[in-house]
Amino acid sequence: MIAAGASSEFEGARASLAGPSDYLALLKPRVMSLVVFTSLAAMIAAPGTIHPVIGIIALLCVAVGAGASGALNQWYDADIDAIMLRTRTRPVPSGLISRQAALEFGSTLSLFSVLAMGFLVGYVPAILLASTIAFYVFVYTMWLKRLTVHNIVIGGAAGALPPVIGWAAVSGNAFDPAAWSLFLLIFLWTPPHFWALALAGSEDYARAKVPMLPVVKGSRVTRNQILFYSVVMAASAVLPYALGYFGPVYGSVAALLSVAFVGFAVVLWRADASGERKHALQMFAFSIFYLFALFTALAVERLIGMSPLAS
Amino acid sequence: MELTPEEKRKLSQRNWAVAIMLLVFVALVFVVTVVKLGGNVAQHSL
Predict the structure, then answer these.
(1) CB-based contact (8 Å) between A7 and chain B?
(2) What are the Cα distances from residue A239, in Å, to A123, A167, A203, A233?
(3) A17 to B7: CB separation less than 8 angstroms, yes or no
(4) Sign of dihedral through CA atoms A298, A299, A305, A310?
(5) pTM score of the predicted model
(6) How far is CA A165 from CA A11, A118, A244, in A?
């Protein structure tokens, strides 16, 4: 015998109009692409070799794990996403996919990606992938995001781990300082990247009561912090070259683009109220290009045999 | 409960997506087995 509540729930599930593309959207494919790319570049740059098939599977596991984190984030943050203009058309707040389905989808894919990484690639990258998913879901999404203005500073560690996963998949070494220098770069890149976006859409975050820095501390403090983190990030970007981890191709691209990055931060820092949104969006767009360019340089340098790690 | 044509279409799409993903996974496991086993068998003296 089926209870009344279960029956209506069953009917609701049957009437789902979600297609495969809606489930793909649940995986946040744009975020996934940056994660996969940084992991791929680190795999190419890492010392050692990996069979191409195993390498592709490692990347698939990273992609699915990152997507699963995104799905779990949308399960937990459905209330916030429904309020914010930027996110209210996502599959869960728009009603296409139920919260329960998002939770099941994200949990299954998380488990699946970690197990596949462990059995098919290696236990070291699998442990790192599991730590990344757990950190993003439990530490960032469930704990920090609604609690503190430092949410994305600390939470940025989850987005910074994929290159270490890729590195470990090839070298088997989870503690290589060169890999962790890439972690540091993305970790310090995350605050100016997200605060530039938050500055452009601070009303959205305020409406959802998410304590992003511009909402809590205002525009002036946020722009000071963006400039501070940009300078520290620029130093961390050239550090791996100075320490001899990476070669002149990476070093020159990192130096040139880091100067430009700080330049964008200075322009935003000096902007008046009318130009703030425009310069914040420019900075956000450049920050994405910056990370792609640095990791491209890293991979190209290894492929043309100019990396110190190649010898 | 009778599904509407649109619900039937979406359900069919989801079923196909799951089927394709399962087939891809089976193919991946097969290829990895060949890759990992192949190297060991080639190095194994008879």
Answers:
(1) no
(2) 29, 18, 37, 10
(3) yes
(4) positive
(5) 0.90
(6) 42, 12, 21
